[in-house]
Structure formats: structure tokens, C-alpha cells
Amino acid sequence: MSGSWRQQLRHARRVPFPKLAIVAVIIAGAALTSACSQPSDTQQAQQQQQAADEQARTEADEKAWADAEKAGTVAAYTAYLQNFGAGTHVSEASQRIVALNEAARKAADEKAWADAEKAGTAAAYTAYIQSFGGGAHVAEARQRVGELSRKEADDKAWADAVRAGTTAALTAYTQNFSSGAHVAEARQRLATLDEQARKDADDKAWADADKAGTAAAFNGYIQKFGSGAHAAEARQRLAALDEQVRKEADEKAWADAEKAGTASAFTSYVQKFGSGAHVAEARKRAAALETQGRKEVPTIDIQKTCQLAAGAMVKLMGGTTTEQDINACLDSEQKARDQIVKDRATYASADKVQCMRTDVYLPSYVEWLTCLEMERDVRKMQQEEQFGAGPWTLPRVPRTINNAGR
């Protein structure tokens, strides 16, 4: 710059004054302009320092970024951002942090899910849901919780039912968990309990019937347990008791018939015990007594008696006599004779002499039977002393009354 000024001054000495003045002004302006355009040493130093600082900052930024990338952690990238908030890689560092946080969240989600699956409990899946409410496996975790809650409730209810071991507990389980894991076993146990209860009731009923030992007790057992374990034996015992009762009744009836000793008693025995032990003898005795009775009971011409009696009724009452009337009379007379023969042993000899007379007008078995029964009944009342002492006889009916009745 000083050399330039000298050359300009030399040149100025050669130029005339007016020109020289103009030239001087020009040179002065140029010198001034040149002086203004040249930086000072201080400015230049500052610029150099700024350039150096920028270079250092850039190098520090790149080194910090390289270190952060090498570490590859959220902490490293966060430190980079804190130290170089306006650095070249701020945006990328922020992205890396977001990516690392997402990866960490996903890894934590997967680990928590793996832990929950490994535990396999409702509590573990619930903890996963609480920690990762928006996690990738929340829906499945909720489903597992529902399934496990039902299963846990099912298993607990089943354990309670098994521990109780009662029909009521097992039935309650099947009602509350109709599609539970243990329903089939519950039904099997119920069937077993029912069978055991039935068997116990069967055995107790049989023990009670056996202890009583009566036909009513055995019948009661059979009615309640018709296919029970002791039904066959109960029927055998019933048959034995029935046979014993029949035999005892047979013997008693026979003893009564023998005690009475009448044809009617033996005939009654035969009618009641057609296959009894004494039927043959009873028939024999009844036949003998009836034969003897027929011999003892006088014979009446009931055909004549009935025809004359019918005619007498026509005369007395008017009207006509039919064959049906006569047949009814004949039937009554025959039945009366049979009754007299049957019960002849129950009539007193004096009564038979008094009542069974053939020398009266129109003798009748019906009248004889009436007379005999009335005399017998009176004698019976006398024996019971219901009417005092002394002989009692029914008043005789005059023959004229009998004839009029005929």
C-alpha cells in the first residue's frame, strides 16, 4: 500500500497543477477507498478465530455423533442432544431415540407377555394388561384371563364338591358349571352315590323287614324295592309265611269243624279250604252227616204242598197261580230242607219232635225251619240268662191259621 502511494506521487509531480489537483483528489479517493476495503489485523484475527471455532465445533459435533452412534443407546443420543442442541444430527438423534424407545417398549412388551405365558395364571395375565394396556397381546391376555378365571372357578368349585363328597355338592357343581371340565366325572360320582344310597336304603329296609318277620313287613319291602337285592328272598319268606298262615287257618278251621261236628261245619270247611289238609275227611264226614240227617228229617211231598198252598192263596187273595209261583215255592222248600239237614245237630231233640210234624195240614220245610230256628234262638237266650229262668216256647199257631195261610 505505501509503494502505491509513492508511485502516484511521482506521477503527480509530472502533471500540471490543475491536472495535478484533480489527480490528487482522485488518488486521495482511491487511497481512501483502498484503505477502507482492507481489513484490519483485529478483524482478520477474529474471522480466523471464528473459522477455527466453527471448525472445532463441527469436529466436536461429528465426534459426539459418532460416539452416540457407536453407543447406540437412548442415553448416548440424549447426551448428544443436550450437548449439541443445534447440531447437525439433532433430528436424526431424536428419531433414533424414538426408535430405541419403541424397540425397548416392544421388547418389554414381548418379555412381559412371555413371562405371563410362562406363568400361565390369571394374575400374571392381569399384571401384563395393567403394565401394557396398549400392548400387542392385550386382547389375547384378556381372553386368557377370562378363560383362566372360569377354569380357576371351575376347578375350585370342583375341589369343594369333591371335598364335600355329597350328592347336594356334586349336583350344585353340575348346575353352576354345566359345561365345566369335571361335569362328566361329577355325573359319574352322582350315579355312584345314588346307587350307594339306594343300596343302603335297600339293606336297611330289608334289615327292618327281617327283624319284624311279618308278612306286612315283607310286603312293604317288596313294594318299595321290587327289584332290590333281597326281593327274591322277601317273596320266599312271604310265601313261607302265607303257607304257615294258611296251614294254621286250615288247622283251626278243621278243629272248629270237628268241635261243631255238623254237616254244615264240615261243608263250610271244604268251601274255605278246598285244598286243605282235611278236605277229604271233611267231605266224608259231611256226606255221612247229611245222609244221616236226611234219614232223620221226614220226607214231605213238597210238590203237593206247593200246589195246594198256591190254590189257597188264590182263594184268599184272588188272581191266578202260575208255574213260576209253584217253582219258587218248590225252591224255597228244598233250600229249607237242606238247611234243616245241615243244621240238624244244632237243634234240640225236643224241638225237632215239636217242629218237624208230618201230620199237620200241608207240612212245610219252610215252617219247620222257622220253628226250629226260633226254638233254638230262644234256648240260646235262656242260656245267656237274658230273660230269666224257666222254659220258653213259642205259642203254637192254630191249624186253622195255617190252613188259611195256605
Could you explain how this protein is built, in words?
This protein folds into 4 domains: 57-118, no CATH class; 122-173, no CATH class; 201-296, no CATH class; 298-406, no CATH class. It contains 18 helices and no strands. Helix content is 79%, strand content 0%. It has helices at residues 2-14, 17-37, 41-71, 74-83, 90-119, 122-131, 138-164, 167-176, 183-212, 215-224, 231-260, 263-272, 279-296, 302-317, 323-343, 349-355, 365-383, 399-405. It has 406 residues and is mostly helical. Residues 12-18 have low confidence and may be disordered.
Could you outline the blueprint of secondary structure elements for this entry?
Blueprint lengths: L1 H13 L2 H21 L3 H31 L2 H10 L6 H30 L2 H10 L6 H27 L2 H10 L6 H30 L2 H10 L6 H30 L2 H10 L6 H18 L5 H16 L5 H21 L5 H7 L9 H19 L15 H7 L1
Quick structural summary:
The protein has 406 residues and is an all-alpha fold. The chain contains 18 helices and no strands.
Features:
406 residues, mainly alpha, 4 domains, 18 helices, 0% strand
Strand content: under 5%
Give the low-confidence spans: 12-18
For the record, the count of structural domains works out to 4
Element-level helix/strand string: HHHHHHHHHHHHHHHHHH
- Give the number of helices: 18
